[in-house]
Amino acid sequence: MKHFEAIVQAGEWEEVEKYLSGFTKVDDNRYSMKIFFEIRKQKYLEALDRQDKAKGVEILVNDLKVFSTFNEELFKEITQLLTLSNFRENEQLSKYGDTKTARTIMLIELKKLIEANPLFRDKLVFPALKSSRLRTLINQSLNWQHQLCKNPRPNPDIKTLFTDHTCIPPNCHLAPTPVSIPVAAVVKQAGYTPLGAHGPFPSTAATAANAGALASWMANASAPSSVQAAVVTTSSVPVPQNQVSSVLKHPRTPPTAPGLVDYQSADHELLIKRIWPSQSVEDVTYPTPRQQASWSLDDLPRTVALTLHQGSTVMSMDFHPSHSTLLLVGSTNGEITLWELILKERMVSKPFKIWDMAACSLPFQASIVKDAPISVSRVAWSPDGNFVGAAFTKHLVHLYGYAGSRDLRQHLEIDAHVGSVNDLAFANPNKTLCVVTCGDDKLIKVWDLSGRKLYHFEGHEAPVYSICPHKKENIQQFIFSTAIDGKIKAWLYDNMGSRVDYDAPGHWCTTMLYSADGSRFFSCGTSKEGDSFLVEWNESEGAIKRTYTGFGKKSVGVGVVQFDTTQNNFLAAGEDSQIKFWDMENTNVLTSTDAEGGLEPLPRLKFNKDGSILAVSTADNGFKILANNSGLRIIRSVDTPPAYEAVRMPIESSVIKLLVSGNSAVPNVSPVNCKVERSSPVRPSPIMNGVDSMGRSMEKPTKMDEVIDKLKPWQLAEIVDPGQCRMVSLPDSTDTSSKKLWKWTRNEQNPTGKATASVVPHHWQPNSGLLMTNDITGVNLEEAVPCIALSKNDSYVMSATGGKVSLFNMMTFKVMTTFMPPLPASTFLAFHPQDNNIIAIGMEDSTIHIYNVRVDEVKSKLKGHQKRITGLAFSTNLNILVSSGADAQLCVWSIDTWEKRKSVTIQIPAGKAPSGDTRVQFHSDQIRILVVHETQLAIYDASKMERIRQWIPQDALSAPISNAAYSCNSQLVFGTFVDGNIGVFDADSLKLRCRVAASSYLSQSVLNGSQSVYPLVVAAHPLEPNQLAVGLTNGSIKVMEPIESEGKWGSTPPADNGMLNSRTTSSSTTSNHTPDQLQR
């Protein structure tokens, strides 16, 4: 800050902005905008004060005009200052003094803005340095240089730091220096940017917390002139001659323990004293070992709970990230199987087949004809549990979308590598879900979910055996890879080559894994000679921290030991037909089990997320499930019905408790996607009984609930009386041009201050009394289509009522800007999900305008519909915009080029006119899309625009549909009907779960009135999956949720098996086309 204060006081404005640009940009947030505005305004006023009008105009046009987009009136007022002989004639500037005083006052304001700006957090104070830090760095450098000496001497004479040190060759043979710091990595000479340079500058606290972070390792390994740090102390430890020689012969293998050395020659001391007056020398130290968490052997899953037969040798297994008993298995016959352990049942089985041979490469087509059958090499769940990936031993990767229960549908086939695809993993670079693959062609590739190759990493000299994508706090995401020659490399998502080049112990096949909390890094592998190595790495040094013992010698070519980690405490590896367990803090084997016999010689194994269940492969083409006491209770719960409630209640109560822990939210009446942002302040809770009570219990129903629901006789839930649900009414609103903001305040009736259907919210307005009112000059309100959209961070609201589009600040209700001519009228609005400055505007004349607020310009005009636009939805995963119109047509547009990719007409039931408003909303997986028309609800796969499900009004819900929306977790669909009914559907199957009759939320006088009142729009709460709001045709709004004793809208409907209780579900005509059927 001192430097910043000095250049502000000196009026060095270009230097001020250049300095700030290292931390923030004008449009990062409102604090940054205000900072730059104050600086440029001061620069402008000083030019006017000097009577330099030409300079003032230049500043106005080049620097201040950017702010006109957000406050046009203020910009006009600033421009008018040019017409005054002295700008102090303006009333607001009448107290402006001299330049020095004005800069001081401005500096006080800037300090406040900088301190409040989250982008400057932890960056206002230069990190503290230890007094001997320079001495330490010099010793590290000299240690390294001395390592490279061809003739190292015991007491090297260091006289300068301006050239690299080398010992002068002696006339006679001398014993090597007592140094045990080997070269830990090959230093790449290419000038790649170190990984640490790609992240933000860490604070002192963050630096201490990340002492073991990969940033240091990578930066040290890859910098052109820096090297691996050595541990320095004031004493040296002699090392036997043979140890030093062996180390220097194999300089690439990281050491198992760092050595100790310092240089204390007289000349060296003199040099140090000249450049650093401190008399003390501090050691470079490792972080202190963590305290061992309390645990017992009972925490380990060692009891055999199940033995299941796969039918072919198991090659890979992976548990669902939140459903602790849902196991994905891949086998040598190419089959992918989904097992539900509670039911002891195969939920889905997908035999290997090529989905589209014509799209595959010619080498693959040739290899299929002559080579052996294709085996699975790896299966994996995506982190959100919505996708399944499978890699095969020939070229291919298959991606399936998982929609719950037995719905595993084909999503994407990729001809990924020449030869075998050896590993597959999911990653989220730039917050976009991607698939990372590696193969025999020595390459690593990153694909998006549409099959587009994003990155292509080459540099390995042998087939790549495994990959390990990861992310550290304050560091970009990266990928570790290992090849069958034992080389370990690390890559950033930038196509600039590997940042690390190490040798794995054993110099052969190795896999790498992080502990569950991402703080510890392990690898396990086997050498060609049959020796196995399980080690923990010290990330800050790129060295081996500890090597675990207990492996036996294996025959050459037997295979590679597999391992896994769990609970941040334990490691497990399969060897000698048994499972061996280690405590992470102890190198000796903790315990082992043979799982009652029958395991493979080198069994494959996988823990579920909470470590209560362990799957391990057997020699008879199957696998066993081992469990601890917690895991046994979950697996065996189906055999003991009385225990259901005891197991169920802690899970449900934790869900309810955490779902109300977020910030208060306003029901959103705009048809925008209500999925929870990854950056939301609401974070997943600790895992309970294998169920992530916030993160994924919201995403899919718990398997325990599914089992309970299956055993209960199913009946459609019908709510016909007001006492059967919770509901609150907001006052009627007949002013269609004004927008209202409702907030739930914290009080005795609502101590949490969260949105609830038990307490009436407060109509909130800013102190200024401003209203969010649209320009309706010359608008026929009876024909106008009101439309509204919230920005991704809820900072802005955009709306129109037949006239110009207005952009409001949600905190002040001020109009930031208005745009678009009143005709043709806007009929639908949507913010770009990644850039609030880009807006898609659907028009009455059937066009879509892509408008850039910042430059006040329509960038593209999209034409493809025949009637007005009635819906817009963005997918960041597919990089597309889907539009719908009153012509019952869906169009898909590329976000990159705004070109039309595809156009389909929704399938209207026989006898119905192909017209009427059509609305669209993406599922939280950003792949499936809900299509709403008065004649139907439908689910489409947006990557192909093929219909997966369809529901047609029938039985008790036979009236036309007025609107529908996904719940925030995309597990429910709320549908409204023109007869006043509301239907709650299961989002996966579109089967009806619950019917809410109009009599439950409308008064008798309204029901008996001459005018029909029904829900015109429905919105889902952004955090609570069972809370919804409906806007009625009479202007009133109702907020609803189930009664507390129920907690949800009905139960999951069963599959159509002819065993429904007393009545059939209102989904008998549900179209259930799987992708397989659609292709046929």
TrEMBL record:
Keywords: Repeat, WD repeat. GO terms for biological process: regulation of DNA-templated transcription. Signal peptide: none annotated. Residues 676-698, 1045-1080 are annotated as: Disordered. SMART domains: CTLH, WD40. Residues 1-55 form the CTLH domain. WD repeats lie at residues 307-341, 414-457, 551-592, 862-903. InterPro entries: CTLH_C, Quino_amine_DH_bsu, Quinoprotein_ADH-like_sf, Topless_fam, Topless_Znf, TPR1-like_2nd, WD40/YVTN_repeat-like_dom_sf, WD40_repeat_CS. Pfam families: TPR1-like_2nd, WD40, zf_topless. The keyword tRNA-binding does not apply. PANTHER family: TOPLESS-RELATED PROTEIN 1-RELATED, TOPLESS-RELATED PROTEIN 3. This is Topless-related protein 3 isoform X1. The lineage of its organism: Eukaryota, Viridiplantae, Streptophyta, Embryophyta, Tracheophyta.
